[in-house]
Amino acid sequence: MESLFLKQERLLAQTQTDVVRDTINKIHWDRRLIAIRGSRGVGKTTLITQFIKLNYPPGSREVLYSSLDSMYFSNHNLLELAENFYLMGGKRLFFDEVHKYPAWSKEIKEIYDLYPSLQIVFTGSSLLNLLNADADLSRRSLPYDMYGLSFREFLKFYKGMDFPVYNLDDLLGNAAEICMEINGKCRPQPLFEEYLQCGYYPFFDGNKEDYYIAIENVVNYIIEQELPSLCGTDPSYARKIKALLSIIASSVPFEVDITKLSKNIGLARNSVITYLQYLDRAELIKLLYSDIMSVKKMQKPDKIYIQNTNLMNAIASGNKHIGTIRETFTVNQLSSSGHEVEYGRSAGDFVVDGRYTFEVGGPDKTFTQIAGVHNSYILADRIEFVSGNKLPLWLIGFLY
After folding, report:
1. End position of a domain, from candidates 128, 146, 164
2. Which of 117, 146, 175 corresponds to the end of one domain?
3. Are 65 and 130 part of one and the same domain?
């Protein structure tokens, strides 16, 4: 176990705490069992190591971080680790990347039952299903889902500008005042265009080419490793799943023709729908339906988007359609902040929480398509201030 404490000290020494995501204050850390789920690369490990560094003195033996892909677990198990840690007075265990440890859910459940005074925090892929794991942890754990940086967080992380989070009602009701405040501190439009290319994942170091290679590596890992181990996909289908993702990324925004997709990648229709659902759970795409309440398991979605614009830029071939980029940003920021987004089949591009209708477009977008629709708004790119119910598109990036 001493080797794990040494690894923890090295990791904490490299962890910076000058900028910390607001997520750290939303988690109820006093709970006995906490699950933090998210796609690879969104910053789960950084978040928990920052928490340890901010709350425990150097060399503390009351807390222990361990990544479950460590060589240590080739001849040790979690139960053994927990017992030794408990006997030496340990209080809080952090298990990172639990999906890389075969019996993680059974052993965590047993630790939870055997050591009531221990607090456990574990992180894992967005594909983790707590309800259907080998041991049902859904009743015991408090789950949190973590996403990449919002536009607001990008400004904080990379530009040193700290703006508050706004809920959707306040954002729409006080849009003019909020825009005035933001414009008084920066020129948001050029910063927004930078965010669309390189602002979502918190590992951009200034080199765009290296950044996109890192994103591709994330995609390859999810498709080649996580989908087979967590969803049971056939590893030999990895190339076809990547082809499916590439087609979606290069489409304008993709309206679903399952039959055509099936022919293009050589998979049966039902298999295509199943893989689309897996890619959605893996946070590589976002499936939209025109009526969330009536969605059945094998129903085809009405529209498909790549999960975020940085991912689109990394994997799409050829020029990206500006309309696709705008709509992808909108869906991503709304859904990542906890809102239900539906495809606006009859009027507008999107219906949000069953209350608001949004039409997304450029600076010259008119209200023709949403005329007479209650609680309807235009989210317009390349504008900086509000004009009635016509709001800057970047404003929706301040929801988390």
Report:
1. 146
2. 146
3. yes
Residues 155 and 138 in one domain: no
Q: What whole-number distance in Å separates Cα of residue 359 and Cα of residue 348?
A: 5
* DSSP symbols for 55-120: HS-TT-SSEEEEETTSGGGGS--HHHHHHHHHHTT--EEEEE-GGGSTTHHHHHHHHHHH-TT-EE
pLDDT by residue for the chain (400 residues), tens digit each? 899 999 999 999 999 999 999 999 999 999 999 999 999 999 999 999 999 999 999 999 999 999 999 999 999 999 999 999 999 999 999 999 999 999 999 999 999 999 999 999 999 999 988 766 677 788 899 999 999 999 999 999 999 999 999 999 999 999 999 999 999 999 999 999 999 999 999 999 999 999 999 999 999 999 999 999 999 999 999 999 999 999 899 877 666 788 988 998 998 989 999 999 999 999 999 999 987 665 554 578 999 999 999 999 999 988 889 999 999 999 999 999 999 999 998 899 999 999 999 999 999 999 999 999 999 999 999 999 999 999 999 999 999 9
